[in-house]
TrEMBL record:
Residues 7-130 form the Histidine kinase/HSP90-like ATPase domain. PANTHER family: ANTI-SIGMA-F FACTOR RSBW, ANTI-SIGMA-F FACTOR RSBW-RELATED. Keywords: Kinase, Serine/threonine-protein kinase, Transferase. This is Histidine kinase/HSP90-like ATPase domain-containing protein. It comes from Streptomyces olivoverticillatus.
Length: 154
């Protein structure tokens, strides 16, 4: 499954809506923590592509056991979802060091913290950045349980 993304920051919202519609048909419930993690990762990768390169991009989501996805993820976990964003800019992704109240510069830090694996490689004149999330290993599962339980005690 892939979507062409224009070189406009407003396309990030369209990419999120597209991804939600694909998740709904993949067996991943929109209320699952994995779904929200994937939407956040997609938002960050697409934002980086359109804002930092000024180029159009292609977003792909690959689910376990679906055609090309099975071959791409043969080495990964059985429940791995892969997200890829390809663009035509030769400029490699680079981490920025956001300070205190900065409103940007944390995208790749989020990707690094949320994805089980991520990376990038040159492709033709551009590049492809990718990340993978293993279903069932979401960082968000149970993240707020103890706080929730503590605030509901009588």
């Amino acid at each position: 499954m892939q979507m062409e993304v224009g070189a406009d920051p407003s396309e990030v919202g369209r990419a999120r809506r597209w991804a939600r519609s694909r998740l709904a048909g993949s067996g991943i419930g929109l209320d699952e923590p994995l779904a929200e993690t994937l939407i956040l990762l997609i938002s960050e990768l697409v934002t980086n592509a359109v804002v930092h390169t000024g180029c159009p991009a292609v977003l792909r989501m690959l689910f376990p056991g679906t055609g090309a996805a099975a071959g791409v993820m043969a080495a990964g976990a059985a429940g791995t979802v892969r997200v890829e964003v390809a663009d035509i800019s030769a400029r490699p992704p680079s981490r920025r060091c956001a300070q205190g109240d900065d409103t940007g510069g944390r995208g790749l830090e989020l990707v690094d913290g949320l994805a089980d694996r991520w990376g990038w490689h040159r492709e033709g004149v551009g590049k492809r950045i990718w990340c993978e999330v293993d279903r069932g290993d979401s960082l968000w599962t149970g993240a707020f349980e103890s706080q929730h339980a503590a605030t509901n005690r009588a």
